[in-house]
Amino acid sequence: MALVINEVTKRYQDFTAVDHLSFTIEKGEIFGLIGQNGAGKTTTFRMILDLQETTEGTITWDGTNINNINRDLLGYLPEERGIFPAMKVEDQLYFFGELRGKSRKELKKEVDYWIDRFELEDKRKAKAETLSKGNQQKVQLIASFIHQPAFLILDEPFSGLDPVNKDLLKGAILELKDKGTTILFSSHQMENVEELCDHLCLLKRGVSLYAGSLLDLKKQYGKTKLTIRTELSKETLESMEGVKYVHVGKDQYILTLADEKYAQAIFDSIFDGKYIEKFSLDYLSLDEIFKDKVGGKNV
Ligand SMILES: Nc1ncnc2c1ncn2[C@@H]1O[C@H](COP(=O)(O)OP(=O)(O)OP(=O)(O)O)[C@@H](O)[C@H]1O
Question: Where is each ABC transporter domain found (predicted)?
């Protein structure tokens, strides 16, 4: 076990930003923290990093209280973006690496590798302020792990990146995991969490609605998403037993079933020996589960 958050609460006067939060991140895994604006993600990160005190509860890394561990084990990309505007890209990376106790010699290979990996070679000698916002973000991101931390926290790392750079980042996160880094990140974009994480925590107003494996969460809902291409009307589909909602897609219907057991009867009644163009039963996407869990009038 690497990081254990046990019954952690953060109060600001009489407002509770994080409420008895518990989850565990195993060594070498990628863990996603998701929740709407104000759910308490950044507050949680700041408590893990000991930038903010917990009101109650404990946080340990490898069994040691987080405020007693060597800070150089940690890496952090904060939500606020910012690097030294007048400093050259490569100098910036050396600066942050040296700040975390690495020598220039140790850093050289890493700096060269990540500059190339994030396609910043032609910007190496450029002042940070002359870079586009996305490129500045990539520099800040590299700076967060240039010292090869054991545990890396990335607050909304995907926001503001174009699709090509998002893919670069996904690749980099997986590569860091392969090298043994434990990674915790937040994202509003569920597909990123779905692609990268085996485990996650879903926060709503500081309260954990779920913490555990993504597959187990999906299994709680079962295979209740039915995609059909048919000539039948929406009303006919809605009237079938076990159908909760019918969403009309571009050239297909997406049905939400009360239980996957209803799928067979729907199949039999719709197609009845006819040609089947599309009939697929799937788990809900994380995005759909998220909306179901946090949705409703209290959002
Ligand atoms: N210093 C503070 N004093 C009072 N309330 C605070 C303070 N810092 C954060 N909060 C409140 O705590 C709650 C959680 O904030 P936090 O920044 O952790 O949310 P978040 O999940 O990171 O949101 P976002 O996705 O918008 O970044 C918010 O309601 C916020 O207003």
Answer: 3-230
Q: Which residue shows structure tokens 């507050």? A: 43
Which run of H or E residues covers position 288?
helix 286-294
ipTM for this prediction = 0.96
Cα separation of 148 and 83, whole Å? 19
Predicted TM-score of the model (pTM): 0.89
User: Any idea what DSSP says for residue 80?
Assistant: S
When pLDDT is averaged across residues 187-193 and rounded to a whole number, the result is 88
231 residue type, one letter: E
Over residues 110-164, the pLDDT tens digits come to 999 999 999 999 999 999 999 999 999 999 999 999 999 999 999 999 998 999 9
Distance 3 CA to ligand 1 centre (A): 22
Q: Looking at residues 158-171, what average pLDDT do you find?
A: 92
Q: If you measure from the C-alpha of residue 186 to the centroid of ligand 1, how many angstroms do you get, rounded to a whole number?
A: 14
Say how far apart CA 48 and CA 60 lie, in whole Å. 8
- Domains along the sequence of the chain with CATH: 3-213 (3.40.50.300), 223-282 (3.30.70)
What pLDDT does residue 299 have? 34
16 Cα: distance to centroid of ligand 1 (angstroms)? 10
Please give the average per-residue pLDDT across 6-10, as a whole number: 97
Which residue's structure tokens are 């974009």?
189
- Tell me how far apart the terminal alpha carbons of the chain are, to the nearest angstrom: 33
Task: Give one DSSP letter per residue of 147-200, joined into a string.
Answer: T--SEEEESSTTTT--HHHHHHHHHHHHHHHHTT-EEEEE-S-HHHHHHH-SEE
- Region label for 101, one of left (φ > 0), alpha (ψ between -120 and 50) or beta (otherwise): left
Q: In a mutational test of the pocket of ligand 1, which residue from 36, 42, 55 has the highest number of ligand atoms less than 8 Å from its CB?
A: 42
